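tool=predict chain=A
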Amino acid sequence: MSKRLDPRNWASWKPFGIGERKPNNYLELWKAFRSVKGNRRFAWRILNEGTCDGCALGTRGMRDWTMDEIHLCNIRLRLLKLNTMPPLDHSVLADVAPLAKLRSAELRDLGRLPYPMLRRRGEPGFTRVSWEEALDLAASRLRGTKLGVYLTSRGVPNENYFAAQKAVRALGTNSVDNAARICHSPSTVALKQTIGAAATTCSYTDWIGSDLIVFIGSNPSNNQPVAMKYLFHAKKAGTRIAMVNSYREPGMERYWVPSNAESALFGTKITDDFFGVNVGGDIGFLNGVLKHLVENDWLDKAFIDQHTSGFEGVRAAVSGQSWETLEALSGATREQMYELAKLLGDAKSAVLVWSMGITQHSYGEDNVRSIVNLALARGFVGRDNCGLMPIRGHSGVQGGAEMGAYATGLPGGLPITPENAGRFSEKWGFEVPCAPGLTATDMIDAAHAGELDVLISSGGNFLEVLPDPAYCRDALSRLSLRVHVDIVLSSQMLVESDGDVLLLPAQTRYEMEGGVTETSTERRVIFSPEVQGPRIGEAWPEWKIFTELAARARPELADKIRYPGGTPQIRRDIEDAVPFYAGIAGLAKFGDNVQYGGRHLCPGGRFPTADGLGHFSPVEPPRLERPDGSFMVATRRGKQFNSMVHERRDGFNGATREAVLMSPYDADRLGLPDGTEVVLSGAAGRFTGRVMRAPLTPGNLQIHWPEGNVLLDVARRSPDARIPDYNAVVTLRKAAP
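tool=predict ok
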């Protein structure tokens, strides 16, 4: 990596970008310092000795395996307060009516949950109970009941996921799901079908020196900020960066990397080529790019002939799709499609990166298949500086599915079939159900219909994460028992219920004896040791909570479920159950890691499919019905981590949480000055916000998530992965004066 200054990539000659609109990273350091008052030594040890529980880049301490430089991002700094805060005064839970008026951030700021708490039906709030009382109560309700279990990805380590899914299956159900489905399950489905592997095929080192990186529906400046340093070094190495998105993200235009002197001082121009598309228009655009590759013979014919199947079907499919159809769907011209096709055709190497702008659609699987087609057509798989990368937004996403905490999959990503269930039944000594369970969205539907008795939610907040919060609230209220396992309060805990509600206090990853592991986007399984510091009340590790619940509900299986040897024993169990996690049992100290599959999956074009080939997929453009005068609206993230909003205003674009981002063309056409209050109306509900001009493709809007969930239709889900569609068709009008 070159250390010489390169003014060609500088974003501004103003020192430190003074006067420019951008996040103040050094102010973030000061805010973090203030937020951990009284626990600063503990916070410092977490930063230096722990593996990051933020985005899934997997920095250990403040360094990683991509470059020998310090890494520290705003997301991790904001999480420090949660990891070090003192316990809340549990007496405030005696009457939840005042708490129900607080925002989520205010609930979190009350402090950590220190003790098990119980709210019986009809009571105004919670009272403290012992672990014995709490566990016995819950276990008694788990016998012969209709159960659903959901685990979020917020810092949840592999050990918690694995022990929880095993415990749930011992209870006789496969209805255990996690946030990986809400984020990247279409990627999992499509990648398994096309290349045989449900993970990124390359490493972050492949960014640096690649001819081209294409971001599609992905914004790492907001969601994976540590990755921006990789892009700084990629630019220094001559890498060209393109972006396909409906919004020209300011953070992907210019970024100031705070821990690098050159970028901190002058900033870095990131994106070289931007291609604006409609929300939901990705298939139209990407198929158009593939159509140009075919028509101009910009194909890696040797790779296609030797390592793939199905190309002729794809050639015929795109040949039969008219340019007029592809342009109308994508919102881009065939000339713009040609520009990206030429970049791909000229590139000797490229990495294709995507995120939830691609997956969170009712046709998310086809979106991913269309990306895979481009990579296979150019042979950009299985070699240096090439790859397919579904970049992850949380440290617990990749491992969650691979540990088997999935309603449709067993450990190792195996589908739930009688044969696979039988294999694990023999391994674990109890019967594993052979039919898929309820997904997260199915659990809410079942609760709403009175067909679910008990929900155990480890972290998460369905009121903020899923479409139609009112529908979710109603569903939560109908359960005979809800068990919320978490480190802090959330609004879903306060929903009044027809049954009882239990709150069980959990430990963070830094508090768990024996240490834990996470799996990063690049498939690196990384050990995070216990960090010495204060401990909160009677908080337990989540793996112990789940196994103890199952052991008490089915005492005849207790010795097959419990882990008296703690997390080292769980890691041995993982290695036995998931062969490609070989080496996890030996991880025991800070910095220990193993990257399953090595730097590249599918090396040399050898795919882990039944026939050893990569499979092309004909992808038909979706039929999007958008009446005249309506808009496509997408939900976006601002200054937040998952649904945890940290600031009302986004430092990159200045948008507040009520902003309705709109193209200047549409705003001028409708006579809507910035700040105009407008109402968006869709099939599911209404959203009131204020117009803010932004570099968006005309005909499209963006609003913040989770505030915009009121517009989302609970019935719109992808066919295979069952992921909600986080976009909607809306009409817009001025709010009444």
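The CA atoms of residues 23 and 651 lie 4 Å apart. The chain has a mean pLDDT of 93.
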